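seq:
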Amino acid sequence: MSDYKDIIRKPETLNWFKAAMGMNITRHCLLDIVKQASRELYDTIRKEINRKHGILEHVVCSQCHTPHVLPCDTDNKCCHYKYGSCAFHDIHKSQRCRAYLCNEMCKEIVYHHRFRNRSKPKSFQGPTWDNTDARKWCADPWQIAKCYLSKDGYKDVNKADDTDFNGIVNVLINCEFFQMYFKDDLTQKENVCTKARDVGREVRHAPAMSMTNQDSDRAIDTLVALLQSLIHVNHQVTAKTAVDKLKQLKSGTLAITTEDVATTFELLKEYLIAKIKEALEKEKDKLVNEMVDAFNEKLSKVLETIQRKGDDVLETVDGKKYDVLETIDGKIDDVLENIDGKIYDVIETIDGKRDDVLETIDGKICDVLEKIDGKRDDVLETIRRQKHEVLNNKDNATMNRTLIEIQTWLIEHYRERCVVPVSMLDSDIDVTLERIYVPPSIHELKRGRKDRHGGGEMDMTSRAEPEVSCYRELLHRDGNPVNTIYIQGDPGCGKTTFSTKLVLDWCKAHSKNGASSLETLTRTATTTGKTSNPTYFSDLDTLRGYTFLFFVSLRDYSGTMCNVSQMVEDAIKSIKLPWDDSVWEHKCIVLTDAADEWYHPEIAFPPPRDSACNCHKYRSMPQYLQRNNIFNIITARPWKLANLIMSDTLTRLFEISGVTNYTTLAENVITVLAEKDGISKNDQQCKCIDFIEIIKAQSLGNLITVPAVCVQLVHQFYVGRLVEGSLCSVYMNMLDMHIAKGLQKLQIENFDTNEMCVNEIKQIIGTESTEYLRDNMSLVHSASALAFKTLTDTSKESSLVFAENTITNHMTKTELDYLLQTGILTKKKSLALSSRKNVPYMFLHKTIQEFLASLYIAMNQPDIENILNTIQSVYCDYKSILDIGQLFIFTCGMCAPAAERISKHITDVITCDLESKLTSNSDLDTFLTLNTRAAHNIIVDGFIEGLANKQSCLQLTNSHIDFISFNRNNEKYKYALNTLIDMNISNMISISIAFPTSQKESPYRLQEIISQSRETLSYLRLVNTGQSDLQGLKLKYLSFSGNTDISNLDCTFMRACEIFRPRRLSEDRFLQSMSVTGKNIRSLVLADATSTDLCAALPNMTSLHTLKLHFKGLAVSQLSHLPESIRKVVYRYIEVSAQDIKPMVEWSKSRDARVCCELLDCYIFDNVTDICHWMKQQDGIDITQCEIKQLESYRLISLSWSTILSK
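struct:
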């Protein structure tokens, strides 16, 4: 063990080192104090917030970014305005914390800052907001302490242990909370902490890392004084120990090892490297000057050499220039490496090796003299630039080592597992996806905004043309990237297959050759006959720009995890790969499949303090990482996305509706199957033609458009078992073929030892085509019991992916082995990432599980009451009821009594939720056009399946009719809808009907329904429906727009109304009726209304809680007519000025109750900064949003505030 005096021999350097070592000893002591005090500061802040605002200390938030909770103000150093927009708030706008917590914590942090703006109590000056991440305030007190660090160099210091001496002392100085730890008065301009800070500066800035003996002793004495000033009892022992070490260090009696020396230099490494770089830059200037002088001395020799060697010498000179630059740069790099590892060797090298460096350069000067003359500045710039590039490349290589390892593993993992079974009927025929792939038909859907110029939209979720055909169109809108993309589609339409294709293409984009056979295939796969279709999704260059793609199957994490980034991290760590959070700093695609198969873990809200869950109260979707460089693609069934709130600008919604050409898909599947059997190309073509003809002859065109079903039909046709019938018959036949395959594998006649007869489904099973199923009913019953019990499992996490013990609760181990042989159950590993060590069991496809569950219902009709009670208890609200859709459709084809009861339950749940949303002032227009439509379509599709499966007496309940789908070019659908209307015409509860503006058809059917449902109809939405007589209706909700004329309206029972660009006559009639009978209306929305009767009607609406006006000029005079009951006023898409906003603020402050006011996406031409500044100066209001969007010729302002009642 060497003494430090042997390592550092120069007395001046030794003195400097003692002071630096003293800083390290002091820092180590102060570090424990700062960490403990930071926790105490957090607790103090929470107690104060609880005292002031009643927010309990167990309430936490991890959703608010720092810009969210910091008001945008030019006084804040982090708020830099450019083109009218604040860079700090560019992504995350100021808003109110949903837990009402983070904004108050922000204020408390300011309160504890010593140098806050005391002249402006509402100012947020003082803390360094750039340093901190508000999402971590409740979990990591150090993030609060970081607010008291200086701005430069500490943003990425995420642990107190990584903070240097200067940072620790700055926290003590800037945070008033630390005064309690010191007997010295820290409010004085000069105190023990400021003196210690000066010591740090003297040590860091000491020239040539040298100090006099007196300066070194004085520095150590200052540090001793700092520690002796500590008065907190918990740290007296630690401080005394540190003081003793400092005194020994000063006297030279402290035993210090080489490790201590290395640690001390490590803490000063960054600063020392910077100083050495600066010294080297100066040294290079001297070297170049010496080179120029040498050139003048040896000019004659150079000229002689040039004349003798001619052009060869010139070429050599030109080459040697780079040799010298590389030599100089290489030596600089060597010096920097030595500094990083052994700083004391660098010091000796600088002192002792300078002459060697000069000699080396001088030896090669003859080769470069001509190039150097007159280009001194160019040489220096080249040296600096090349040195910078070398250092950057080294840093990037070190940083990317882990990332490259992760990317490489991802590509290998995806390619290894990216095989697909040709059909669910034979999972043993695994081929690469490209063998059968046919591009999907993908269209963008437009949601939810009323049209200003054309009245209400025909459909709140309408398809937008043209079809999406490449990844760039999917991931960008108008050339700009979109960070959240939803892809919805019905069961079997190809969502997972498209996801797999995207994963494969990403792998190929990052492979060495880039292109793939799949690219070639997709150029030809869509070509049939003489028609050439465009290339689909072959733009690998688009995917090449995304460094990582993480494919997560959400069904694997259902009920167990809710944070997608954590799912990815756990999956990577589970295969023993190192993880680096810097992954999320690169462009990533996070592809999550089957969101409809995911459920949130059973965690209370708000979650416990030690919970990893940071989700909001509404937990229908997992939590995604929201960053500009992260692109989330989420696939799900339509019902899952029906109620999801989506931003018009930040998200996109697409729909997969099958493949671009199902004939090509059929040809590809037949080709793969035929190759296995050695069938010639000519016979393959004949089979394809025969298949298409049979599909047309048996009217199976509605089934073949679904890719998964199309593949099943092709396989059944190929083996000669295609039967005419319904969806149920296709799946029944498929089940029979699975059993036959299992028997063939095991070379046995049947699985069952127990005979079982189920009379209820003999007609459904048939007698000829399903002999294997009939002979093995005991096994089928066990599989169907498992399917039903898991789908109705209240814990949810076991509903789709389950462990072996779950299975053996419903069957024997032998039966489980049999089902694995048939392929109905599978343990096959998926392409997606998963942290599961044991591969879980699942049904081959969710539709098979749903079919078997329906079969279980049909096989157990004597126990129908218990079965239905189970279904009703699990699927009991609108969030879950739509998930029952496919189960219901299958049940309609197999068990009419159960289907009728389930349809009644679906209707009751939707009705109950309508009532709930009416009470809570929710957006009923959106609910009617999404949830009720989804439920309506499920029931209609179920009725169609029942008819196809010969359930002729099926009497379904459907009291929520959606006429938008009535215009489908599908005669079966129209017949089913009209039949259901006839069945329920006197019991309608809600009707939503929208026609295009050009609609010519008379809405006589609508008037007939209205007339016969006067006693039950409560919710009505009309768009471009012409004349409607509403006499006798007791409506609770009404929405009408466009070319709609209403008459005989009675508002007595009405609670909410929404009117969008109505005809003047209808508007006048409505306002007149509302003025007389509208005293119970709580919510009113008017868009582009033109009548002047509104002011006259408002005072009579004595229950009005919320008023929303869209596309209508802001008339402050309207405010004075509002009743005392008003609590919320919203103006949207209007032109406003400061003269409008100020009276509105004064009006809100004059109310005796708390009132919320909102201006959303309003056009403004005034000085926005002046308005915001004026708002912030107002007492008695709480500003919850102040957002400005700069457009080409105008600005959009979104401004929200609520009044604060005086106590």
